[in-house]
């Protein structure tokens, strides 16, 4: 059975195959990282690729770009649903529209898209729902 991740955006469900997944756990003593444990969750991930720097960088970018994630500002999200919509929009932008390297997006690098999307394509995309 193939492992998939299910994403829901604006009432559209997208199933994307996810073949490899690993986890890095930082073991702390007295507030300091003393070692890291790399665990395979499913698939066959490369242990050399298991690091938290990518996730920590992405979280920093989210806080910089989405005002609702910053505490003690007038933009702080008061409604969870609006924050979720903002996150979905940003995730789509980051993965499909944002030019990552040499006219490619992260979705193109993963084989999920064959071109850089535009906001026009996003808002006027005609989807077909199949069972």
Task: Walk me through what this model shows.
The model has no long low-confidence stretch (mean pLDDT 81). The protein has four helices and four strands. It is globular. The protein has 131 residues and is an alpha+beta fold. The strands form two sheets. Strands 1-2 form a two-stranded antiparallel ribbon. Strands 3-4 form a two-stranded antiparallel sheet. It has helices spanning 53-65, 80-97, 106-109, 119-123; strands at 4-9, 12-17, 21-29, 32-42.
Key features of this structure:
131 residues; alpha+beta; two-stranded antiparallel sheet; two-stranded antiparallel ribbon; 24% strand
Instruction: Give the number of helices.
Output: 4
Gyration radius from CA atoms, angstroms? 18 Å
Q: List the secondary-structure elements in sequence, H or E.
A: EEEEHHHH
As laid out across the biggest beta sheet, the strand order is 1-2
The main β sheet shows up as: 2 strands, antiparallel
List segments where confidence is low: pLDDT < 50 over at least 5 consecutive residues: none
Number of strands: 4
Mean pLDDT: 81
Morphology call: globular
Structural class assignment? alpha+beta
How far apart lie the N and C ends?
17 Å
Helix share, percent: 25-40%
The percent range for strand residues is: 15-25%
């Amino acid at each position: 059975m193939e492992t998939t991740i299910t994403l829901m955006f604006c009432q559209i469900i997208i199933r994307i195959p996810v073949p490899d997944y690993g986890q890095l756990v930082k073991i702390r003593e007295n507030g300091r990282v003393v070692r890291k444990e790399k665990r395979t969750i499913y698939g066959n991930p490369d242990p050399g690729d298991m690091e938290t720097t990518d996730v920590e960088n992405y979280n920093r970018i989210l806080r910089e770009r989405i005002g609702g994630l910053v505490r003690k500002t007038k933009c702080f999200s008061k409604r969870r649903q609006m924050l979720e919509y903002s996150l979905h929009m940003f995730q789509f932008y980051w993965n499909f529209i944002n030019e990552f390297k040499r006219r490619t997006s992260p979705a193109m690098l993963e084989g999920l898209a064959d071109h850089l999307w535009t906001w026009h394509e996003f808002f006027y995309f005609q989807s077909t729902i199949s069972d």
